Amino acid sequence: MIKAAAVIGANYGDEGKGLITDYLISSDSLADASDSLVVRFNGGAQAGHTVQLPNDTRHVFSHFGSGTFSGAQTFLSEFFITNPILFKKELLKLQEHAYSPKVTVHPQSIVTTPYDMFINQTYENFLENSRHGSCGVGINETVERNLNDQYRLTVSDFFHHKIARKKLLKIRDHWTNRRLHQLIHRELSLKEKKLILSEAIFEQFLEDIETFLNYCNISDYKFNDHTKIVFEGAQGLLLDQNHQNFPHVTRSNTGIQNVSSIALQNNISHIDIHYVTRCYLTRHGAGPLENEMTTCPCPDFTDKTNIPHKFQGILRFAPLDIKAMNSEINFDLQKLSKKITKKTTLAVTCLDQFNDKISVVAGVGNFIELQKDKFRAYIFNKTDFDDYIFSYGPTHQDCISHKE
């Protein structure tokens, strides 16, 4: 019987999903990690899930599951957006750490091209101070293009070299100009036109595709060889494509919906669902952030992953609103199939960044400061989960699983 767990961000991303995924893979004494599988069920190259080992080895995972260091294999699902350019770049970094993890990709995974990335970045520069909060790696543009069948590109197309080449030329020579004209309402400069039509970029992308194909297995869902599966989400519930915060969202289902769909296809009848939050709120990018603070609330704040970004700007902060978080989680759980039973866990990270008091929202415009040693009791009182995980550091060894 397959043991299945899911890791879902409860907020705007950056909650510690990589840490919790690594913890779940590494802490299970009943399962051999090499038989474990991390399934990326949404998002794509914009995900940045940090895993740090006790020996200080550190990596920010995007195309590879965050259980890689602990020996888990990776499956990129049909809901994952593949980017062969950034896949190759990340693979080389992992190989520098002497890791060459096994990766399987669903043939219906849609593919980001360099032209999607160019459109994304050009449009963000055009928006200037009205940006949506994009990472600049072409996620939205990939989804938008793939809504049009004549420009749709999936991993399955790579099996047919001539077809893939023909589709790429069509995307380059027709879609890119058409989409940019729709977005920025101006003629492209000579420099921009040369960049789009660059044969060097085109041929390099074909080489990146070849690297991707040679490294990965291409297959639909075949999970029977694995004793444990962890569904690793990207971004968070407040960035779901159907959230009221639109357009400051991502183009994917960030909660349990995709997990439920994949589980049903694989006869998985029970999932341990882990919702992850920092003990405060963060947001990287434009969009609403209730109760936003002007400075970081943590005296010992450190985050090597979320550095200032050309398109997203700086990391923003707010106190944790537990009532609002509970509401978002309860709404998400309604999307789980009635055929699947569940156990729910709340994982709270970054507690090591506070020496004394932690601020939380206690009502509209009302905040209270809790002594750090009282924070856990407050969480237990204000939430109703089957279990809890608390993280007091950057590695899986710093996580403690207990209700009291």
Query: SSE string, helix = H, strand = E?
Result: EHEEEEHEHHHHHEEHEEEHEEEHEE
The beta-strand count equals 16
Query: Radius of gyration in whole Å, from Cα?
Result: 21 Å
What gross morphology would you assign? globular
Number of discrete helical segments: 10
Average predicted confidence as pLDDT? 91
Main sheet strand line-up: 7-6-5-2-8-1-9-12-15-16
CATH fold descriptor of the largest domain: Adenylosuccinate Synthetase, Chain A, domain 1
Q: Distance N terminus to C terminus?
A: 30 Å
Low-confidence stretches: none
Q: Helices and strands: which structural class?
A: alpha/beta
In the CATH scheme, the class of the largest domain would be: Alpha Beta
Fraction in helix: 25-40%
Assigned CATH architecture of the largest domain: 3-Layer(aba) Sandwich
β-sheet strand percentage: 15-25%
Biggest sheet descriptor? 10 strands, mixed
CATH superfamily of the largest domain: Adenylosuccinate Synthetase, subunit A, domain 1
Count of structural domains: 2
Descriptive report:
The chain has 404 residues and is α/β, with parallel strands linked by helices. It contains 10 helices and 16 strands. The chain has helices at residues 17-27, 84-96, 114-127, 139-146, 161-184, 190-196, 199-215, 256-265, 322-333, 372-382; strands at 3-9, 36-40, 49-52, 58-61, 73-76, 103-105, 217-218, 228-236, 270-278, 280-284, 315-319, 341-349, 357-363, 366-371, 387-391, 399-401. A 10-stranded mixed sheet has the order 7-6-5-2-8-1-9-12-15-16, covered by helices on one side. It has a two-stranded antiparallel sheet with strand order 3-4. Strands 10-11 form a two-stranded antiparallel sheet. A hairpin with a 7-residue loop joins strand 15 (387-391) and strand 16. The two termini are 30 Å apart. The mean pLDDT is 91.
